[in-house]
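User: Please run a holo structure prediction.
Assistant: Happy to. Please share the sequence and the ligand.
User: Here you go; the ligand is 2-acetamido-2-deoxy-beta-D-glucopyranose.
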Amino acid sequence: MKLSAGLALAGLSLAAAMPFKRSGPTPAKGKWFDRFVVIVLENTNKDVTFGDPYFLNLTNMGMTLGGYHGTTHPSQPNYITMISNTIAGGVFDDADHNTTQDSIIDLFEPAGITWRAYMEGYTPLEGGDCNPLTENDTTLYVRKHNPFMSFDNIRNNKSRCQNIVNAEEHFAKDVALGADAPMYMFYTPNLDNDAHNTNISFAAKDVQYLVDTMLLNKEFMKNTMILITFDENNIYINDNFGLDNSIYTVILGNDTIKCYDCVDQTYYNHFTQVVTLERNWNLSTIAQPDGSEEGWDQWWRPFGQLRSASDDVCAYAPCSEYYDGKSPAASDGNWEDQDF
Ligand SMILES: *[C@@H]1O[C@H](CO)[C@@H](O)[C@H](O)[C@H]1NC(C)=O
Ligand SMILES: *[C@@H]1O[C@H](CO)[C@@H](O)[C@H](O)[C@H]1NC(C)=O
Ligand SMILES: *[C@@H]1O[C@H](CO)[C@@H](O)[C@H](O)[C@H]1NC(C)=O
Ligand SMILES: *[C@@H]1O[C@H](CO)[C@@H](O)[C@H](O)[C@H]1NC(C)=O
Ligand SMILES: *[C@@H]1O[C@H](CO)[C@@H](O)[C@H](O)[C@H]1NC(C)=O
Ligand SMILES: *[C@@H]1O[C@H](CO)[C@@H](O)[C@H](O)[C@H]1NC(C)=O
Ligand SMILES: *[C@@H]1O[C@H](CO)[C@@H](O)[C@H](O)[C@H]1NC(C)=O
């Protein structure tokens, strides 16, 4: 960090080209994974996604989360719930909101868990500050799909801003670091590549590029869990928190899941990501600096069919008991019915 401050003072802007380098305390081994990658696509109903040959193909290679749901509508609050723990930090629409609340990043950094957010079409400001622009019409980047930008303690902190990078420039380079790649990677494609302005088969091309880049690097894939999900389905009912907002979600990474080509039908939603990350790295729950709302991560459950080193049931094999869509924890998909 001293080096970059020096360069900035000298009037040079190397922020955009800054390579990833780990720093901070040595992190603990994860319970289920040592790296979590999430790729977020847009506004597609589950049946439409399953209808695409490539997305169907991915379900053969990993575990489908058949009971996974978006948390609300429209887009932005869904992204925010993937990294925080209250009802979207008070953000309920797609406007440029700022929140004083904490996020999963506030738990990661003291624990030495490295992170980066990859945003297609994003350009940081000269000197490395976060670029809070609403959208770039040329590159099809939008702030509403970049949840990190809404948190004051990220957007206003130049050192944290270094971790929000242009995806096209950095993603493949960082995957090439193999074991040294960031431990948490959040990937947002642009408005064409995420299906927002296009369709699911268009989005499949970008997803295949990303997935191939990762799967071809064995060092990178060791104990890595890749979650491919959507922000919400394409049926817009305002504030339908907890109601049906079913989306295609698949986990890839045979070191981390109990079975592949299988379905876990338990009810999950975007908050489950946060709880899974907290439990994986034995972190606390996220503090509520303004005391405004109860943290959902205090009582939500993590993904249920993950494989820890001491529990390798069904590893590297399809498990027929899950494959029929009736996992041991199957539910009818109503969040009210869950045993917290
Ligand atoms: C998981 O292992 C199975 C069996 O080897 C393979 O078919 C599948 O492609 C693997 N999945 C991933 C994401 O590597
Ligand atoms: C949030 O902060 C950005 C600058 O970072 C500002 O442009 C925007 O107006 C703020 N939003 C609100 C609702 O205050
Ligand atoms: C949009 O992105 C392009 C390419 O990175 C950049 O040249 C341009 O300045 C950006 N526009 C805005 C308004 O930031
Ligand atoms: C900014 O972020 C860095 C790295 O995450 C952290 O060490 C520092 O305390 C933060 N600065 C402020 C003013 O919060
Ligand atoms: C998706 O859009 C492309 C054009 O970009 C079109 O050729 C294709 O048929 C569409 N696919 C579906 C499933 O609608
Ligand atoms: C399935 O996805 C994998 C990973 O991207 C890819 O290597 C393979 O070619 C795909 N197969 C089909 C039939 O699409
Ligand atoms: C998890 O953290 C708690 C304290 O926060 C500690 O008591 C416990 O030993 C840790 N567990 C593991 C497995 O590291």
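Residues 26 and 281 are 12 Å apart (CA to CA).
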